[in-house]
Amino acid sequence: MDSNCPGLNKNNRFKVRLVFLLYMYSRWCALFFVAYLVVSLYMFMSVFLAVVYNRFRSNLKNEVRESVERAEVLMDRAFDKAAAAACSNGRDEGMGERLCQSPFFN
After folding, report:
1. How far apart are CA 33 and CA 1, in angstroms?
2. Which 8-state DSSP code applies to residue 106?
3. How far is the CA of 42 from the CAs of 33, 47, 62, 89, in angstroms?
4. How is the chain split among helix, strand and coil, in percent rounded to 5?
5. Dist. CA 100–CA 88, nearest whole Å
6. Residue 55 has what DSSP assignment?
7. DSSP letters along 57-97, please?
8. Domain residue limits, the chain
9. Taken in order 29, 20, 9, 39, is the CA torsion positive or negative?
10. How far apart are CA 1 and CA 13, in angstroms?
11. Contact predicate 69/58, CB 8 Å
C-alpha cells in the first residue's frame, strides 16, 4: 500500500491523483467537476424519486381498491347472514318482516 493514500487500491489511487493533478492544473477543472456532479446527481435523483413515487402510488391504489372490494364482499356476506337469520326466525315485526317480503329473498 502507498503511504500517501492508505486503504485505496492502485486504480483508485490513480483516480485520486488525477483529480489532484487536474486541480493543480486549473481550479476551473475542479469547479466544473463539482458543478457537473451537483447537476448530474440532482437530475438523477429527480428521475429516481419520480419513478419510486409513481410505483408507490400505483401500488397504493391497488391496495386501496382491493381493500374496498374485500370490505364490500364482507358487508354483503354479513347482510345476507343477518337477513337469512331474520327470515328464518319468523320475526314478523320491524325490519325482519320487510326483509323477508323483499323480492331479493323470495
Report:
1. 27
2. -
3. 14, 9, 30, 69
4. 80, 0, 20
5. 9
6. H
7. HHHHHHHHHHHHHHHHHHHHHHHHHHHHHHHHTT--STHHH
8. 10-101
9. negative
10. 10
11. no
| pLDDT tens for each residue of the chain, 106 residues long | 445 555 566 666 777 777 777 777 777 877 887 888 889 899 999 999 999 999 999 999 999 999 999 999 999 898 888 877 776 765 545 555 555 666 665 5
Interacting residues of 87 by C-beta distance below 8 A, sequence separation 6+: 96, 99, 100, 105
**pTM summary value:** 0.48
Question: Amino acid identity of 1?
Answer: M
